[in-house]
Amino acid sequence: MERIKFLLLFIVLFGGLVSQGQTTDIKGKIIASNDVVGIHIINKTSSRFTITNDEGVFLIPAKLNDTVLVSGIQYEPKEIIIDQIILQTESMTVYLEDNVNLLDEVVVGKILTGNLMTDIENSDAKRDINFYDLGIPGYTGPRKTQSERRLYEAQSGGGIVPLNPILNWISGRTKKIKKQVALERTDIAVRKVESQLSEVLFEIEEIDEQKRVVFFNYVADDPEFMALMKTDNDLGMLEFLTQKLKAFKIQIEEK
User: Fold this and answer.
1) What is the percentage of the chain residues whose pLDDT exceeds 90?
2) Cα 80 from Cα 43, distance rounded (Å)
3) Alpha-carbon dihedral sign for residues 114, 118, 121, 127
4) Cα distance from N-terminal residue to C-terminal residue, the chain
5) Which three-class secondary structure state does DSSP give residue 24?
6) What does the pLDDT average to over 120-136?
7) What percent of the chain has pLDDT over 70?
8) I need a labelling partner for 179 at 20 to 30 A (CA). Which of 82, 87, 151, 198 fits?
9) How many CA atoms lie within 13 A of 176 on its CB side?
């Protein structure tokens, strides 16, 4: 009899330990007042992450006592500790609150109707004269950087045989400017990724603030960075940055 009791106690204790260490796919749903697509779901304990779909639904692996962070730009971040109820039901619902910025002072001006021409006439604003008013051709694309303008000038020219592009190519000026343009575009891309994904990235993998600038310069040296940037895939970029950050920390420790 005593032996049976001992075996039962052992089974109960062993079952509890197994359930504690067992990873389960948790299906969750975000409830919020605004858009629920693309919200970051991060398991800080196991460094796993995903994003919500159009309906605010997500799936993330977790085990007992894992900490899951839910983060969206327009919402207050929220942390959930995985308990037995969540594990047993394999589901959870997360309610998010809007991230509201309170203003010290509100100035009430003229009411806008939504009709662009009417609102311009009712406002005190005056638009600048442009090339359409003067009847001359003009550039309507994205604003070029200084290096991009120099490259355009170096590669353009008039006449039957344009000498300017030829001379710039022979002298190596065009090649030098192209390199400057590439560096400039990489720097802009790094700053964009840094502003959009830093908060989420450093929640997954921590690093001293003093080393973060060096890390992003380290990322910019990888040709895969700009290739991935062109895909406009935030989740893919976040996964890439996480792997690069782990490698960066190993290099720091070795040095």
Assistant:
1) 19
2) 9
3) positive
4) 62
5) strand
6) 56
7) 62
8) 198
9) 8
> Which 3 state secondary structure label does DSSP give 160?
coil
Q: Angle at which helices 173-204 and 234-254 pack, to 10 degrees?
A: 90
* Segment 174-211, tens digit of pLDDT: 677 677 777 778 888 888 888 888 888 888 888 888 88
Write down the pLDDT at residue 63. Answer: 92
- Tokens representing 162 are 């344009």
Kind and range of the H or E run holding 5: helix 2-21
Cα 44 to Cα 23, 130, 213, 229, distances in angstroms: 14, 52, 23, 25
Q: Which of 165, 218, 167 is nearest to 193 (CA)?
A: 218
Round to whole Å and give the CA distance between 187 and 181: 10
Tell how many helices (H) and how many strands (E) occur in the chain: 10, 7
Q: 41: part of which helix (H) or strand (E)? A: strand 40-43
**Which tokens sit at 218?**
């380290």
List, in sequence order, the alpha helices (H) in 66-210.
84-89, 116-122, 131-134, 146-155, 163-171, 173-204
Pairing, β 48-51 against β 40-43 = antiparallel
Q: What is the pLDDT of residues 49-97, one digit of tens each?
A: 888 998 999 999 999 999 999 988 888 889 999 999 999 999 999 999 8
Has this prediction a pTM greater than 0.85?
Answer: no
The dihedral sign for the CA sequence 34, 35, 40, 42? positive
